[in-house]
Fold:
Amino acid sequence: MAKLEAIVARLPEAARVDIEAWGGEPTFRVNGKNFVFASPDATSLSVKLPKEEADAVVATDAHAEPTGYGLGRSGWISVSLPGRVSAARWREIEEDNALGNLRAAMQAVVDDGRLDAGLVDPFAHMLLAAVNELALLVARAEDTATAQRQAEVAVDELLTRLLPKRSGS
Structure:
């Protein structure tokens, strides 16, 4: 649980809320919206992801499955973490969430000749920070659908300006 709390603590305005009606099960929220449900010992988690990312994690991680009660259709996945979880496994969970996808996207930009291969990791980490901030912006918005569309446009604009297409492409 300490490692999960440390990861969540890096997120601005995130808070732990234990649900007494569920036997004290911990949840983690931003502005009252759940994004993680955990067992008290953190050996199982349910995490809210964008639907496409949730599908990718379930397809590639033997310990992940769509969350029950129909929540899996909305991007919730459940991950079992049997026994003591190593630092490497925690990092893998974090990477499944976003960093791995950003690295892959940056590699595509390298393959297109628009970024030096040595900059894949720095760009992926930089973009992850920006995406995390946008996720908080969307979570706080009154109209989350509009905020999400605006966030997507902002990311596209940022990438277009940072990594313009080469002339003749």
Observations:
- Strands lie at 14-19, 25-30, 33-38, 44-48, 64-66, 76-80.
- The chain has a mean pLDDT of 81.
- The chain has two domains: 2-84, 92-162.
- The first strand starts at residue 14 and ends at 19.
